[in-house]
Design a protein that fits this description.
Blueprint lengths: L3 H26 L4 H11 L3 H8 L4
Length: about 60
Amino acid sequence: MAGTERRRELRRRRQRVVKTRKILDRVKKGSMSKDTAARKLRRMTTGADVIIQREGLNA
């Protein structure tokens, strides 16, 4: 059963990437405010500050 925890980590990471992409797409479309997106990203991942800075969501 070697690598089981690693697989879980990778699955969680991939899911975070997908969810982050969906949130950013909704912001670009205009169906979600920047403040809401920033709050959700902060709650979802530890590297949220970097993503928020990169995408210009610190409004």
